Sequence to fold (268 residues):
Amino acid sequence: MKILVLGDVMGKSGRIAIQKNLSKIIQEHKIEFSVINGENAADDGKGITREIADNFFSLGVDVITSGNHIWDKEETNTFIEKEHRLLRPANLAEGTPGKGFGIFLSKSKKYKIGVINLMGNVFMRKSEDVFLTAKDLCKKIILKKNADFLIVDFHGEITSEKMAIGHFFDGASTCVVGTHTHVPTADTRILDKGTAYQTDIGMCGDYNSVIGMNKDNSLKKFFKDKEAIKHFPSEGDGTLSGVIVEADENTGLAKKVLRIISGGVLTK
Fold:
């Protein structure tokens, strides 16, 4: 059983990279389930529209996770209630539209895959205690009881929170991946009890940038140049960044994890 998880899709560059390469990766690696973080997929790099979500699903994406930018497009408040394949962080306040976790079928309809979307508390949008939410969700989705496999996307700013959540879910989930900071970390591994982990799986977008935003304008912003304008995404050749997890059908835990970095400047 192989699972593909890709990092934050950043603007038009990221969407084009997905359009060009996702189907090929799914076919070549015999992917049974694919997850992408889509909270930056809109043209301005903030939020996601129904049209973009539908396009991702048509390309073979099974679930879209998100984070602090999930509400940046007003229409999301409405369509997320009907589109259960689009998740928002589970630790947002009670009554928030949409769902933060779910159980879905694999492409072959043979397996039930749980997906949990969490968001860190440090330097992020105000949310409920992520560790208490994680503890509660561990009781609701039990590996090999409620779901054959379990994927956790932790959308957070700081590495310590991500690592702590990774160790918390070790042995209770197939994989824990970090998103949000847009730069892939080099700590891809399987933890002691069998959970695949990477602190941040990076972004799908143009890395000839400042975390996906136009580098020239970003420099102007940092230097407080009066000519600087509102951040906007870089639209050069995009890189796909994420992981492929090969999981054991008997335990639901990871047997192998492979970092995926394809196209764009990171592979040149």
The radius of gyration is 17 Å. The first strand starts at residue 2 and ends at 6. The CA atoms of residues 7 and 203 lie 4 Å apart.
